[in-house]
Design a protein that fits this description.
Layout (H helix, E strand, L loop, with lengths): L1 H22 L2 H4 L23 H12 L5 E6 L2 E6 L2 H10 L27 H11 L5 H26 L4 E3 L1 H17 L12 H10 L4 H12 L1 H6 L7 H21 L6 H10 L2 E2 L2 E2 L5 H32 L1 H17 L6 H5 L2 H13 L6 E4 L4 E2 L6 E2 L4 E4 L1 H5 L18 H6 L18 H18 E4 L24 E6 L3
Helix pairs in contact: 6-7, 6-19, 7-13, 8-13, 11-13, 12-13, 13-16, 13-19, 14-16
């Protein structure tokens, strides 16, 4: 009996080995430069444990750049195109978008309804949802939401002033995430999360768990679902943990029922979603109705897209402005100058005219792009231009945004924080695909305006009222959290914070 088991085991291992070797010959067979893979991970060993995905793709990019418009890597046994040339990037994201309409992200609507949101669904669903949701992110809609965010920011300023009173050194990463949690909770769900006053508020706890895969096994599960989507669905694997999904579904249902019962109208994202649910119209345009589950999924993606990315961006900006005090003062002076022109009133128009502040944000998004790579899926066989390769349906393509943002061919001294890179004349000199923090092409981030507005309001509030500098507890250089999907700081962010409000 033991001999039979051992024979079967050897046969299974041998079969897996030879299957993998056949898979791993894909790029070599087509004479395409590639990174040598290793069983069972392919080229992702160490990601989530000692390396963030941005660091790994950056290493591959530097090794392979110049060898052609793209090169090959492996996600487990799945061949993956790694884009190396900006024109090739433009081709797959824009020119040949009809071949790359899906993101290839894992979602499982049957077992996990809130995973079927705008960012993850396939093209057919995305096209319908995008048409319905695009009107909710116009500049006019942003103006309606502006004061709601300012009110949260005012509360943030008061809370932070009380926290730093008598404490020169202060940990900022936590309080920044509480601020953005309250903003998104208010705008997307219409509820007061109270995370600024209660660090352990359930809304914030659940939000943190969406992003933190924590362990190596958690990150490997994420990659497994990406590489073997159909198998993962068959195994009924969830994209979001059950209790997290149940929490957000419950919050949306309660909010919708309460507003409908009491005829409550607010200038926020949830109000717009309820309009779509009940009438299928926005501003007189008939765009079709949304189901309650669809509302929950869109509110959820609005939350995950705006909570972590905004707080990490603010963290990185404050860190860099603490190192570069002259740049911090320049941004602060612009704030005072613009506000003086608007009779001391912080309005939407005043915010949008703070050009240098915008440059500071863009430079942070260049150096530390929260979405450090763009992934897209081949939705039908794609004959790669200039080659004899036809990429099979459901092949994966990765655009290494972090690596491109740190390429010395496009940015001199890329590790230096220099907002002047984003002066209008400098931007015109660069290829459009040298800066892609929000993606590019038809499937770029729909909520760019909201995300930038949230960051701008937060930064104005902070720089107007506080001064930031390095302290003995500041960790330099920054280390990235390897287990987070969003590029974020692994450790606490300690800075010296001085209250300078009049």
């Amino acid at each position: 009996m033991i001999a039979i088991v051992l024979t079967l085991l050897v046969a299974l291992v041998t079969t897996i080995y030879y299957y993998s070797m056949v898979k791993y010959s894909f790029w070599k067979k087509h004479n395409i430069p590639y990174i040598e893979p290793h069983l069972p991970y392919g080229n992702i060993k160490g990601v989530g444990r000692i390396l963030h995905s941005s660091q790994l793709t950056h290493t591959f990019y530097k090794q392979l750049k110049g060898s052609g418009p793209f090169a090959g890597i492996y996600l487990f046994t799945k061949p993956v195109i790694l884009a190396l040339d900006l024109e090739f990037v433009k081709t797959i994201l824009i020119k040949d978008f009809n071949y790359f309409q899906d993101r290839g992200l894992y979602f499982n609507e049957r077992d996990d309804p809130i995973s079927a949101h705008l960012f993850s669904v396939d093209f057919a669903r995305w096209k319908v949802l995008r048409a319905k949701l695009t009107p909710t992110f116009t500049s006019g809609r942003m103006k309606f939401m502006f004061q709601t965010i300012v009110d949260v920011a005012d509360n943030f300023q008061k809370c932070l002033a009380g926290m730093v009173d008598g404490n020169e050194n202060f940990e900022l990463k936590d309080v920044l995430s509480r601020f953005t949690t309250d903003v998104i909770g208010t705008c997307a769900f219409g509820i007061n999360c109270n995370s600024l006053t209660d660090p352990n508020a359930e809304f914030r706890t659940m939000g943190k768990r969406v992003f933190d895969h924590g362990s190596t096994s958690g990150m490997l599960k994420h990659f497994f679902k990406s590489a073997f989507k159909h198998l993962a669905i068959t195994l009924r694997m969830r994209a979001v943990e059950k209790d997290v999904s149940t929490f957000f579904l419950g919050i949306v249902k309660e909010t919708v029922e309460y507003r409908e019962k009491n005829n409550i109208k607010r200038s926020d994202f949830m109000d717009l979603l309820i309009q779509l649910k009940n009438h299928g119209t926005l501003d007189g345009a008939d765009v079709g109705k949304l189901s309650l589950n669809e509302i929950a999924a869109q509110a959820f993606v609005f939350f995950i897209a705006g909570f972590e990315t905004a707080s990490t961006t603010l963290s990185f900006i404050l860190y860099e402005l603490s190192i570069n005090k002259d740049l911090q003062e320049r941004a602060r002076q612009e704030i005072h100058t613009v506000l003086a022109k608007h009779d001391g009133q912080f309005t939407y128009e005043a915010m949008m005219s703070m050009n240098y502040l915008g440059q500071c944000i863009h430079e942070s998004l260049r150096k530390y792009p929260p979405g450090n790579l763009i992934r897209t899926n081949v939705n039908k066989e794609y004959p790669i231009p200039g080659t004899d390769i036809v990429m099979p349906k459901e092949s994966l393509v990765i655009v290494p945004v972090y690596a491109i943002h740190h390429d010395t061919d496009y940015y001199t001294n890329p590790d230096e924080y220099n907002p002047d890179r984003f002066e209008p004349e400098e931007v015109k000199k660069r290829h459009p695909q040298t800066f892609m923090p929000f993606g590019d092409g038809p499937r770029n981030c729909a909520g760019v305006r909201f995300g930038m507005m949230q960051i701008r309001i937060g930064l104005v509030t902070l720089l107007k009222n506080f001064e930031f500098s390095l302290c003995d507890r500041t960790i330099r250089p920054i280390r990235f959290a390897p287990g987070n999907l969003v590029l974020s700081i692994e450790h606490d962010l300690w800075l010296n914070v001085k209250n300078i409000a009049n």
